[in-house]
Amino acid sequence: MCAVCGCGEGHSHSHDDDHEHTHDHSHEHRHQHVLSPVHSHAPGLTPARMVQIEQDILSKNNRYAAENRSYFSARGMLVLNLVSSPGSGKTTLLTETINRLKDDIDIAVIEGDQQTARDAERIRATGVQALQINTGKGCHLDAHRVGHALESLELNKHSLLFIENVGNLVCPSAFDLGEAHKVVILSVTEGEDKPIKYPDMFHAADLMILNKTDLLPYLDFDTEQCIQYAKQVNPRIKILSLSAKTGEGMESWLRWLKAELDLQRIDYA
Amino acid sequence: MHELSLCESILQVLEQQATAQQYTKVKTVWLEIGALSGVEPEAMLFSFDVVTIGTLAENAKLEIIEVPGQAWCMACAGNVVVEQLYDVCPKCGSHQLQVNNGDQMRIKELEVE
Q1: Domains of chain A, first to last
Q2: By CA distance, what is A172's nearest residue in B?
Q3: Rounded to two decimals, what is the model's pTM?
Q4: Alpha carbon of A266: minimum distance to chain B alpha carbons (Å)
Q5: Which CATH architecture has domain B3-68+102-112?
Q6: Cβ contacts (< 8 Å) between B97 and chain A: which residues?
Q7: Please, which residues 56-85 of chain B have a Cβ atom closer than 8 Å to chain A?
Q8: pLDDT tens across A99-114, in order?
Q9: What's chain A's average pLDDT?
């Protein structure tokens, strides 16, 4: 049924995915209704008319994200989109996490940065696959670029894929990449008010990691206030605090990762 | 500043639709932008003019319909208007709010010829 005018006709479903498996499709309903001219006009002139489109601006990205998501789900993979401001310690958290898990779990990383392959090199030094995407002038990764990155990675069943987004607390919040969860990383050196200064990102994330807690004795960072701000923006957000450098608190993060990976391995009917 | 890439997405839709809807010029684009969508209308207007230069939508007018943010308050069991994602319920002060409108960014309709 058409949501625009209630008609039962004119549906154009686009099923772009040609996967070999069955999965939940996300149907994109696009309707166009040509309405009658709104302006009276002199004969011979091109008439101006209204066209109703009702199309989400992000619909193209969302279609690619849905394809990525079904690719991941067919492989029982856990995919996490790591977002933060630059310098929050994402790459260090990743290398420390990989070193602790790589013997038990297949891990791959997609690194998004405006320039350089430095982060991918740091990840590869741990021995896991890493692919660098340089966004150039772009401020975020989109689902289309991630989809192409998947072609160059060998992703095994039940593997864990981290997508390290461009360091930016604004733009990546709007772009679904097909991940299971957005994980926002906030380091204690950034100040406790980041969640209310950049609410979109904390609203979009399911898990927040408060990193660099080893520096707390040297700072005026109010941890309780920070947690309260994050919950104010997103009452459902879960919060972990840890120091990737000293390893304090890492255990809970690893447990969360394993539990989430287990959830992806369930074969639903 | 992803308003620029959002405007590029809008232009792609306009170009795709041009064949299907048989138009060669876009005169006005109506966008519905929610107060909680993270989109800055001013930046959108600026970017749109830049992106459309030399296209079928050059000099087109961008009309932004701003939709207020709305959330479901668990405590009040009703919808309330919110201006920011970190707002508390204006009636009871609770943080247990679930946004249910005002986060959209969509092309509503076009005036074409």
Answers
A1: 62-264 (3.40.50.300)
A2: B2
A3: 0.81
A4: 28
A5: 2-Layer Sandwich (3.30)
A6: 235
A7: 84-85
A8: 999 999 999 999 999 8
A9: 86
